[in-house]
Amino acid sequence: MTIAHTQILLKFFNENGLDENTLESLLNEEKFEGLSYKYQVHTEDIFTLTVYSEDLHTFEKKRDHLIKYLKNITEYLSITHDSKTKSYIEEIGKTIYDLERSFRTLIEFVFLNKFKSKWKEEFPSLGHDRKSKRGAPIIYLDNPLDDWDFIHLNRFIKEQISFIDQDVQTKLRSIGESILSINTTSDLEKIKEGVLLKIDDLIKLPRNNKIKDITYTQLYTHLTPSLASDWEKLYNLRNFWAHNVAILTRTEFESYKNLYKGVLNNIQTEITILSLFSEENQQSYLTLGQDAFKITIFKSKYEGRDTVQLKGKFINEDNNIVSFKKNNVTYYHILNLFKEVLTCANDTEKLLEINACFEYNPFLKLDFIELGEYISEKFESCDNVKSVFQSHLSNEGYDIFTKNNEVIMSEDVDEYLSLIFKNE
Length: 424
Description:
Elements: E1 4-12, H1 20-27, E2 36-41, E3 47-53, H2 56-71, E4 74-82, H3 83-115, H4 119-122, H5 150-159, H6 166-180, H7 188-203, H8 216-219, H9 225-242, H10 250-276, E5 285-290, E6 293-302, E7 305-315, E8 321-326, H11 331-344, H12 348-357, H13 365-381, H14 385-395, E9 399-401
Antiparallel strand pairs: 1-3, 1-4, 2-3, 5-6, 6-7, 7-8, 8-9
Helix pairs in contact: 3-10, 5-9, 6-7, 9-10, 11-12, 11-14
């Protein structure tokens, strides 16, 4: 049996004569129906009140209403334990490692690509050492981010990846308006002179990034002003976990979950783009698998940002071509598809390899291609996989098309991708 409970420490105002009978009358009111309680003497004038209920859905609302009422009749009020807050804090704790580690990995990945192993000398130093006091094995590691905690990551976003502030926006608008106001009836040289002066004004606008030779778009193209705001909110909500607050509300917890999912997805999108798409030859797509089971992921623009989309096909038990697609995917979505095939095929050894070697490794392009070929072969050899896999696609929100349906290709998809969906 699961119950929700809150333990309250309180002291009534001396002059109002309130006591246990007052609480009994209060908790017997209809608005607190379903709440059980136990009232205990802690000291001569300090008491503990424990309220509990099997109704987990209504408990928090009644608890909050009770606390508000008690505040009006007590001199001292405190929460010593709250089971719902404990469960929320524990759930947040499970997400912290992946969130911070993914962001640190993204930063490390970008700097390794730019400066190779010398990046530790280029990255901003915090001026203190968090590693040497810890001893082995941490002292053997070279990543300067090991000296950074969540507070420093938050500061990094605010200071190193800052955005055009209101003052700069005002200046930009002013420059734009002045360019438009240049007298076009003047001779060509005067027009040219006027435009060059405005370009010079643009060049003199303050630059935002402070990291040598690294622009924020190279580091995190998804770090838009709205997302930076989300990270700041996430940081504040994450502090409830770090500071072990007495009460964490359901609204605050749900806000954290939504922000966490959005920020983590954008970080993983950046890792996917950096790891699976070649910057040197501007490759915009990557094909995984063979004809029996093939996935193509491609990079496209959405609202000025790089996103990853997935389109694939397989041949079902009836020898028909089934096509599927999904927008805004990361390498986690691809791995989940691979793992579904392996689970159906009962290939525990390969599942173990994915969990250990792929799921948290962003440096994986060549191995990813080999894995796709392996998955395709496994898919073709296991008849029981195909119907289960199609159900999985439906449950995960993929758009699915039969051989009689034409997959609508986006205009920005490379022409080679159309071959995937061509009925042969």
